[in-house]
Amino acid sequence: MTRAAPPIHGAAAPTEPRAGPRAAACPETLVAGRTRLIASYDGVREDLRKARSARGPTATQIARMLSVTDQPHGLLLDLLSSSPFLSTGADHAVKRRRAVHILARLGRLWPQERLATEYRRRLTGLMERGGGDLYHDLSLPFLKAVIADAIGLDAAQMEQVFKPVSALFATAQRDDMRLQDFQSIAAQIEGLRPIIDSVPVEPLEGMSPQSSLLLMAQSLIPPLLVPANSLTYAQLHLAEHPALAARLTAGQIRICDYIHESLRHFGALDRTAPGRAKDDLTLPRGEEIAQGALYTCSIARANRDPARFDRPDVLDPERALRSEITFGTGPHRCPAAGFSLILLETALRLQLELCRIEVVGEVSIARTAIGPRYQTAPVRLHPLG
Ligand code: HEM
After folding, report:
1. Residue 39 sits in a domain of what CATH number?
2. Ligand 1, atom 6: closest residue by C-alpha
3. Which of 62, 266, 366, 371 could disulfide-link to 270, CB 3.0 to 4.6 Å?
4. What residues does 359 pair with on adjacent strands?
5. For the purposes of burial, counting CB atoms within 10 Å of the CB of 96, is it exposed (0-12), middle (13-18) or buried (19 or more)?
6. pLDDT attached to residue 291
7. 226 lines ligand 1 (CB under 6 A)
8. Atom 29, ligand 1: which residue's CA is nearest?
9. pLDDT less than 50: residues of the chain
10. How does 190-204 read in b/e, with b if 16+ C-beta sit within 10 Å?
11. Predicted pLDDT of residue 62
12. Could you tell me which residues come within 8 angstroms of residue 282 by beta carbon, excluding any fewer than 6 positions away?
């Protein structure tokens, strides 16, 4: 099985690098569907630093969509207006405070030692079985267990909440939202009422316990797929590059440098939510995006910008420049960046210490609007020592 560098996701028609000076090798923007993608590193960095006003569907759009139905959708509207991923409802400063609070609580509940104990338990379980699917049997259930615990859900409740909350996130990121998508999600979220009413929760600033629980689910569940996929990628890359794994184990390369570089290379979170330009936008290389135009930042594409990185398609943990945009920058910077880095480093360090991974079948990755997602990753685990 051979796996080339993963494709960059998100653009309708990938543009081949042009010959010429390095700065011209990557166009500043691309067009995907109805959305302009800011694709150059400097363009993305510049844009992320600004407080964007329009992210995802606006309150008016959603209200218009839902007003033509007579279904109940109180919970959905509640969730849409409080989600930190959307521009709807309360202003971002309020949402940001709540998101930071939720993430701080996650960090307190899951310090490094507890993460290590949980990951070791799951990894040794899979080793005893000889192997399995690295993503579906290890990374994903590990992340789900951590997040379920932080929200206060048991495993069965987590499975019920996972689907509608993830579907809402994915739908809200699309630039072609349809009424029927929201209707179906509204019905699924209403179906969660028994769970929402039964799980005790400490209310968040200015919110009912029920809305607080939903907001925690919305802030923590969809993003968990990003570290789960990233961890799988970092491990599979080392399975194919044993010399690099040996250098990491020997301490010749720092694990944190490898993690940062594999996040850049993989691009598990490809794009930010589509928004409309608040004002005319001039990008660093002079390209313009007119006021009102739909646009988004492709972090994955920018992270492969040859104007910024030498040999951008090569995963090189010793490269001189780190990416500063993988977790975003500015007012929306990922509030879980520190937690995610600790989690990834802890899991990878333990795995390198405890076992060697052998890929034993077809590894497949699906392309979603938000980024690449593992479908299959069959492996055998060989205990070390
Ligand atoms: C490798 C792991 C991760 C990466 C690369 C990542 C990346 C990002 C990026 C680029 C943004 C900014 C998006 C924008 O500007 O629109 C962001 C925002 C966010 N992330 Fe993460 N993330 C990761 C893990 C997580 C996890 C595990 C959680 C929660 C459990 C999380 C929660 C959030 C939240 C709530 C925001 C919204 C912040 C705001 O808009 O103010 N992230 N993330």
Report:
1. 1.10.630.10
2. 327
3. 371
4. 379
5. middle
6. 85
7. yes
8. 220
9. 1-2, 4, 9-24
10. bebeebbeebebeeb
11. 66
12. 288
In the block, which residue shows the tokens 């795995």? 351
> Is any ligand 1 atom within 6 A of the Cβ of residue 48?
yes
Q: Is 4 a member of any domain?
A: no
- Per the CB < 8 A criterion, the answer to whether 293 and 277 are in contact is yes
Q: Residue 337 has which token pair?
A: 């960046």
Distance CA 235, CA 250 (A): 16
pLDDT of residue 34: 77
DSSP label at residue 241: -
Helix residue ranges per DSSP H, 221-306 = 225-240, 242-249, 255-266, 299-302
d(CA 365, CA 363): 7
Ligand 1 contact, 63 CB (< 6 A) = no
> How many domains are contained in the chain?
1
Q: What is the Cβ-side half-sphere exposure of residue 279, based on CA atoms within 13 angstroms?
A: 5
Any domain includes 8: no
Return the bridge partners of 357, or none.
381
| Ligand 1 proximity of 299 Cβ (cutoff 6 Å) | yes
What pTM was computed for the model?
Answer: 0.92
pLDDT at 73: 62
Give the closest residue (by CA) to ligand 1 atom 21.
Answer: 334
How far apart (Å, rounded) are the C-alpha atoms in residues 98 and 206? 10
Is 18 domain-assigned?
no
Determine the distance separating the centroid of ligand 1 and the alpha carbon of 340, expressed in angstroms.
9
DSSP string, 110-178: S-HHHHHHHHHHHHHHHHHTTEEETIIIIIHHHHHHHHHHHHT--HHHHHHHHHHHHHHHHHHT-SS--
Q: Which amino acid is at 352?
A: L
Which residue's CA is minimally distant from atom 43 of ligand 1? 334
Domain that holds residue 97: 26-383
Structure tokens at 142: 């590990």
Q: Pinpoint the alpha helices (H) of 3-91.
A: 41-48, 59-67, 74-82
What's the rounded Cα separation, in Å, for the pair 87 and 64? 16
Check pocket membership of 323 for ligand 1, CB cut-off 6 A: no
